[in-house]
């Protein structure tokens, strides 16, 4: 992928991995629009990164996704890259989760419904561009489900599957589909401190940018690259070991 000269929407771009990628796209000479729910966080990201554009939206809401897609195309008609990065992670075992369904279903709405809906809303526009891309941020847990985040892992596995199918369908178009597969990265995903043992976000984002430039369609890092390329047998062993199951 050519890193310069693009117009890029990064969902969830005011923090963590999204912000780190947004900063690097900006530095590479692309126009970058970030969105998220927290207006103060968006403003802080814009102040710290002159040139960044912001749009507030709650991507769990269908109406906000439709409004976002309309505003971004109207205000930034050169838009040629969608980065579906926004996500949340709810921690806990499935049968212990007594939260109301409205809270539980939000994880599915943000991690799965939103990226698919945004891809659907923006694809007709992206297909008018000579070069365009949909980048989906999934997770190493798309390959190894874990009991501590069962629904999260399921949404990411679904996004891995969707990315593959969409890539095949769009192979004869100007739109490429790239999947970024983070390992544990040190951000506040799921709450402060839960990912402190992850790789530093700058290290991860630098590695991703280098590989985006080489036209790879699936980009992991460290452990998640291992998961991505493991055989079925290796995955089965890892799955049992990481979930504390007896051999
Ligand atoms: N960190 C890791 O270890 C790790 C590993 C694998 C995959 N990932 C994936 O990487 C992506 C980025 O996560 P991160 O680690 O950078 O965590 P993060 O810092 O918490 O970033 C998540 C972003 O998503 C936004 N967001 C959440 N709900 C939203 C909603 N309803 N509408 C709009 N924006 C929303 C948040 O902004 P607001 O709260 O302001 O809305 C936030 O900026 C996620 O898809 C995550 O699943 C992360």
Describe the structure.
This protein has one domain (7-242): Rossmann fold (3-Layer(aba) Sandwich). Helix content is 45%, strand content 13%. The protein is built from 8 helices and 7 strands. The protein has helices spanning 16-27, 39-48, 62-75, 101-126, 150-169, 201-212, 223-229, 232-242; strands spanning 7-11, 31-36, 53-56, 81-84, 132-137, 175-180, 218-219. Helix 6 (201-212) links the parallel strand 6 and strand 7 (218-219). Helix 1 (16-27) crosses helix 6 and helix 3 (62-75) packs parallel to helix 4 (101-126). The longest helix is centred in the middle third of the chain and has 26 residues, at 101-126. The protein starts with 6 loop residues before the first strand and ends in a 5-residue tail after the last helix. 38% of the residues are buried. The structure holds NADP nicotinamide-adenine-dinucleotide phosphate. Residues 11-12, 14-18, 36-38, 41, 57-60, 85-89, 110, 137, 139, 182, 184-185, 187-189, 195, 198 line the site of NADP nicotinamide-adenine-dinucleotide phosphate. NADP nicotinamide-adenine-dinucleotide phosphate is lined by residues 11-12, 14-18, 36-38, 41, 57-60, 85-89, 110, 137, 139, 182, 184-185, 187-189, 195, 198.
